[in-house]
């Protein structure tokens, strides 16, 4: 079944006051904030063509000048993937010698507006836990590239056992990253860290609870960004907890008091409580500590 933005508006209006808010929010410390600002640069770099369509050994750069800390680090592409599947899953695996990290980054979609207006949100069984269901498109985007990525990750981790494994993504790439991190944790990489910026909902309550119980989940939303509001709660989808809710305006330096940590798979104190998804709120979707999708090119326009 297809759900237009008008369906989204009516469905959210129907459930908007049916579910309770959750626990009291807390601010984040300075050291955490610096990590949040750093890892989003790897998500931003995934939009740059030279990074997701490069050759091994390529140093990460951002033509939009939105990953300065990554550019200063000793980085190199280990593996890239794009234009090889029906889902057009794109991204890269990078080795960061400066920060001792192996980074798996998923590029966000170039047609998010169309996704909001026209996407069909079907469930599939990811076989991660009893009663768990994942959104079919995001799970397929991961499984279509899982085997070659897992092979490279296993080899890279074996060569660099003291490096941490970090999975990042922005927008629809964050949805894929969330499911990939959950899967990798049960396939030999239990300490995998997830930094998901502007992720849509990807799970039913059982799967969301399962992923939330895993360690090292950092899921970010920003004021009234429409993307984290879909798929709909009314359709049975909820979020991974906790939510790191950024209340700072666009194009502003974010302070510790402007990132609230909210618990629960549904929390009306954060992004969910800012109303129905609106196509006029996309400025909030672009800005996650910096312009996260600044490298979107003319070849694949943001529609």
From TrEMBL:
Output this protein's name.
Mono-and diacylglycerol lipase
Q: Which CDD domains match?
A: Lipase_3
Keywords of this entry:
Hydrolase, Signal
Xref: SUPFAM superfamilies: alpha/beta-Hydrolases
Domain Fungal lipase-type, first and last residues per copy:
103-233
The record's Pfam families line, in alphabetical order, gives: Lipase3_N (PF03893), Lipase_3 (PF01764)
- The Mono-/di-acylglycerol lipase N-terminal domain, residue ranges: 6-76
An annotated GO BP: antibiotic biosynthetic process
């Amino acid at each position: 079944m297809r759900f237009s933005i008008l369906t989204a508006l009516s469905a959210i209006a129907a459930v908007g006051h049916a579910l309770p808010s959750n626990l009291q929010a807390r601010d984040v410390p300075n050291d955490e904030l610096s990590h949040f600002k750093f890892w989003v640069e790897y998500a931003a770099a995934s939009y740059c063509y030279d990074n997701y369509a490069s050759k091994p050994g390529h140093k990460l750069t951002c033509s939009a000048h939105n990953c300065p800390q990554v550019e200063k680090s000793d980085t190199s592409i280990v593996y890239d993937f794009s234009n090889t599947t029906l889902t057009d899953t794109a991204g890269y695996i990078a080795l960061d010698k400066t920060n001792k990290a192996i980074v798996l980054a998923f590029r966000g979609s170039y047609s998010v507006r169309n996704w909001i207006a026209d996407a069909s949100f079907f469930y599939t069984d990811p076989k991660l836990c009893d009663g768990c269901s994942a959104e079919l498109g995001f799970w397929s985007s991961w499984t279509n590239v899982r085997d070659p990525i897992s092979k490279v990750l296993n080899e890279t981790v074996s060569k660099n056992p003291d490096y941490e494994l970090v999975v990042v993504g922005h927008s629809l790439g964050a949805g894929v990253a969330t499911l990939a991190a959950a899967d990798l944790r049960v396939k030999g990489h239990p300490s995998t860290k997830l930094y998901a910026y502007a992720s849509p909902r990807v799970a039913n309550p059982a799967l969301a609870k399962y992923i939330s119980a895993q360690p090292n989940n950092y899921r970010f939303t920003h004021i009234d960004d429409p993307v984290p509001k879909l798929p709909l709660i009314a359709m049975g989808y909820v979020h991974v907890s906790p939510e790191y809710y950024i209340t700072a305006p666009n194009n502003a330096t974010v302070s510790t008091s402007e990132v609230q940590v909210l618990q629960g798979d549904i929390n009306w104190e954060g992004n969910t409580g800012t109303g129905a998804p609106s196509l006029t709120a996309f400025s909030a979707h672009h800005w996650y500590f910096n312009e996260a999708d600044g490298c979107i090119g003319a070849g694949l326009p943001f529609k």
